[in-house]
Amino acid sequence: MSNQKYEVCITIKFSDQEAWDLAQFLRRAGFSDFRSNTVDDDEAHRMIVAAEKVRKALADVGYSPGSVTKFVKPRDNLSLSGIEISDGQF
């Protein structure tokens, strides 16, 4: 990846089950899960920052494992828009 700094905005559609499963994974994943798939600690930390943004976006639309309400209402597809992943410092 280049050193050029810019933001990326993505929109993703998930099924209800996919959204829930990804939210569960992101809640359970720890540093060692990320670190085992990176070249160094810095890359692992950047991946965690990005994953946390996705986890928060899922929580914002009702997919938050461990919360009192698991989701607002079932949907055929879930669209997460406005997720901004920045190549900035954490």
If you had to describe this structure to a student in words, what would you say it looks like?
- This protein is of the alpha+beta class and about 90 residues long.
- It has one domain (about 15-85).
- About 40% of the residues lie in helices and about 20% in strands.
- It has three helices and two strands; from the N terminus they run E-H-H-H-E.
- Strands 1-2 form a two-stranded antiparallel sheet.
- Helix 1 packs across helix 3.
- It is globular.
- The chain starts with 6 loop residues before the first strand and ends with a strand.
- The model is unreliable at about 70-80 and about 80-90 (pLDDT under 50).
Question: What attributes characterize this protein structure?
Answer:
two-stranded antiparallel sheet; disordered C terminus; globular; 3 helices; 2 strands; 19% strand; 90 residues
Name the average pLDDT: 80
Tell me the β content: 15-25%
How far do the termini sit from each other?
Answer: 17 Å
- The level of helicity is 40-55%
How many helical stretches? 3
Output the structural class: alpha+beta
H and E order: EHHHE
Give Rg in angstroms.
Answer: 14 Å
Major sheet strand order: 1-2
Total domains, how many? 1
Coarse morphology: globular
Major β-sheet, in short?
2 strands, antiparallel
Walk me through the topology.
Layout: E1 7-14, H1 16-28, H2 31-35, H3 41-60, E2 78-86
Antiparallel strand pairs: 1-2
Helix pairs in contact: 1-3
Would you kindly provide a brief summary of this structure?
This protein is an alpha+beta fold. The protein is built from three helices and two strands; from the N terminus they run βαααβ.
